[in-house]
Specification:
By secondary structure, the chain is α+β, with helices and mostly antiparallel strands. It contains three helices and twelve strands.
Length: about 230
Amino acid sequence: MKNDFRSRIVLPIVLPLVVLSSIAAFVGSVALILLYNTYSGALMLAAVAAAGILFTASLAASNEQLGGPRRGLVLFAAALPLLVSGAFAAGLLGDIDDADRMVNVLPLLAIPDDAPLLAAENSLEFCILEQDGSCTPTQTWSVIPSETEPQLSFVFENLEAGVPHNLVITDLDGTPEDPQAGAETYAAGAVITGVATDYFVSDSLTWDDLPEQWYFFCAIHPNMNGVGQVVQAG
């Protein structure tokens, strides 16, 4: 009876499900580790893991049966990259800024070419990037909405290396002394440490939902501020 149950249920049904579940859990774990590491950390993990796989394959090919110490070495070579990277991803080793984790980094290819753009190259004022690569200081921002992205969206370029900035848009009740006092916040981009890029897209607002004029500032450096308005292309 036991053999019949094993041959009809366990081997053809239960065992494949266990194997598939194990594979799914392993792939999901690796995906999470990659997503919660930095870009460079993910590349390093991939390189070390590939070396571990090659090492494991070479040992397996050179020995029909691996003894206890060799089996332990194979498991160590295969598991060490995942354990170390998992510790980094979980914050047990090192300190990864949330903005630098792969899960929070949006590929540049996803950013529309016509997305409104504002930048910062110092901690005094925002600037507008010119075609020649220069950045012109400004306290005004005339936004031409993107035709490919109907929601309130913008690209913020932090050009100041090693310094955190972000871009916040509120109504005109905000002031340099206390930007949040009585102000309605329409958009608050992520705080990013330069040199880096943030692409913000609102879940519910379009540029048409903003008043005729509005206030923008950096939450880290409130002295960086100005007044914006939406204009039509041309």
